[in-house]
Structure formats: structure tokens, C-alpha cells
Design a protein that fits this description.
about 100 residues, about 40% helix, single chain, alpha+beta
Length: about 100
């Protein structure tokens, strides 16, 4: 069974990059060593892998990646820190 990973990289400017891959170590190395100046992480090194989770189904992994990309910074930080109980409250809109 193949595993797929959704991951979050923290960049030197404190922004987050969210991605999906089937080889987490290889993909992180590609981010670290990329030469594509158009890449989001190119000018934001050093990078730190701060979160990843695995899925056995690529469609589920892609769905979760898209979901996390839409999250606020605070919600991503709660996920990274393992504060799962805070995730629902960080989803509520404040009026």
C-alpha cells in the first residue's frame, strides 16, 4: 500500500507552504535544493518541515491539502502544534 503525505513547510519569512507528495523526505529535499526562481520556497530559505500526516488514498490527501491551504495562519499553527481541540473554534467567522 502506498502512502501519500500532506505537509506544511515553514519558510524563513514565517509563511507556510502546504503540499502533497508520496515521498516526504525527497520532496522536502527538492524544496531545499530547488533552482526554480518561480517556486514559492525559492527565496524563502531556510525551510523547516513542521507538519505532515499520511493517507492511503491520493484523493483524500489532495482534498485535505486543498482544505488546509484555505485555513487561516492561526488554524495552521494550531494544527502544527497538535491543538486539535482549537480547530473548530478557529473555523468560525467572527461578525
Amino acid at each position: 500500500m502506498k502512502n501519500y503525505y500532506v505537509y506544511i513547510i515553514e519558510c524563513s519569512d514565517k509563511s507556510f507552504y502546504v503540499g502533497v507528495t508520496n515521498d516526504i523526505l525527497k520532496r522536502f529535499s527538492e524544496h531545499q535544493n530547488n533552482n526554480d526562481y518561480k517556486s514559492y520556497t525559492f527565496n524563502r530559505k531556510p525551510l523547516k518541515l513542521v507538519f505532515f500526516t499520511s493517507f492511503s488514498n491520493i484523493e483524500m490527501a489532495i482534498e485535505k491539502e486543498k482544505q488546509i491551504k484555505k485555513w487561516s495562519r492561526n488554524k495552521k499553527i494550531a494544527l502544527i502544534n497538535g491543538n486539535y481541540e482549537n480547530l473548530p473554534n478557529l473555523s468560525k467567522k467572527k461578525f
